[in-house]
């Protein structure tokens, strides 16, 4: 290799290293669905206290929401979001709307299990029924106001199972509610804030595959960029083993895998070595 070319590559490498050190990647690790189970609440708390999780999404109508409120008092600096929901997807445990919104309830008074059509749950999705925008607004307001009453530090809104992106009218509604309740960030505003969604890289079925895929994701992050990674911590306990729906039966093992990764010493060391800054929505 010619000296001039060698000098060029050495200079480029030096510049890249300098950039990585002075402008490292930023990463939001978001734990979703707090409130869906007691073990889920425990896992989310552990992933914040002992792991890399920095943002927590709370399902306000869920049965374990009161416990979530009490647990979050243990981590007063944690970034908390309202995980707006219109569904109750599990077969063995259900939750109902907080408001009087008949177009969003099934015959038993629960939320429908799905947002969009699903062959395993025929005619049991929101879009297959005569939903009303006014009912969605009423329910979203009820969830937001209860969350802000119990957890005043709410920093953002997100949508469970994509409900906040149901259509353009719902997107506009969420934007309006965010402005009204003085919330800076929603799922839809992240791209405007320069945030890139990221996920597992490669297969992630088994626990080892999940760890390797998560590690590859961390290694792929570029200096100067901000990323969001979302998953659902849990514990492999009898309680969570009883929680499932058709097409997602291994909930307990899968979510235990998330907890294991987010508290893994190798993962924490890699984040330190790459100088990745872990942040919440409240630091955007």
TrEMBL record:
The keyword Metal-binding applies. One of its GO terms (biological process) is carbohydrate metabolic process. GO terms for molecular function: deacetylase activity; hydrolase activity; metal ion binding. This is Polysaccharide deacetylase family protein. Its cofactor is Mg(2+). Pfam families: YdjC. Transmembrane segments: none annotated. It comes from Spirosoma validum. It comes from the Bacteria. InterPro entries: Glyco_hydro/deAcase_b/a-brl, YdjC-like. Keywords: Carbohydrate metabolism, Hydrolase, Magnesium, Metal-binding, Signal. The keyword DNA-binding does not apply.
């Amino acid at each position: 290799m010619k000296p001039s070319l060698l000098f060029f590559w050495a200079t480029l490498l030096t510049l890249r290293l300098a950039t990585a050190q002075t402008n490292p990647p930023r990463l939001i690790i978001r734990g979703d669905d707090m409130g869906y189970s007691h073990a889920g609440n425990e896992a989310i708390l552990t992933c914040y206290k002992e792991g890399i999780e920095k943002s927590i999404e709370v399902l306000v109508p869920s049965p374990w929401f009161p416990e979530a409120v009490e647990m979050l008092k243990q981590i007063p600096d944690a970034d908390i979001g309202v995980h707006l929901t219109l569904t109750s997807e599990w077969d063995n445990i259900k939750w109902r709307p907080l408001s009087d919104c008949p177009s969003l309830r099934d015959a038993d008074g629960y939320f429908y299990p799905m947002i969009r059509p699903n062959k395993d749950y025929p005619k049991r999705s929101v879009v297959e029924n005569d939903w009303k925008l006014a009912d969605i607004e009423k329910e979203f307001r009820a969830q937001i106001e209860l969350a802000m009453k119990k957890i005043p530090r709410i920093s953002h809104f997100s949508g469970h199972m994509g409900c906040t992106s149901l259509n353009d009218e719902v997107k506009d509604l969420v934007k309006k509610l965010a402005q009204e309740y003085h919330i800076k960030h929603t799922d839809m505003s992240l791209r405007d804030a320069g945030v890139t969604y990221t996920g597992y890289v490669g297969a992630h079925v088994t626990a080892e595959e999940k760890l390797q895929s998560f590690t590859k994701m961390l290694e792929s992050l570029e200096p100067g960029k901000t990323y969001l990674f979302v998953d659902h911590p849990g514990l492999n306990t009898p309680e969570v083993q009883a929680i499932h729906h058709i097409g997602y039966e291994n909930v307990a093992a899968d979510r235990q895998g998330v907890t294991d990764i987010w508290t893994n010493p190798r993962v924490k060391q890699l984040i330190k070595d790459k100088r990745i800054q872990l942040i919440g929505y409240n630091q955007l």
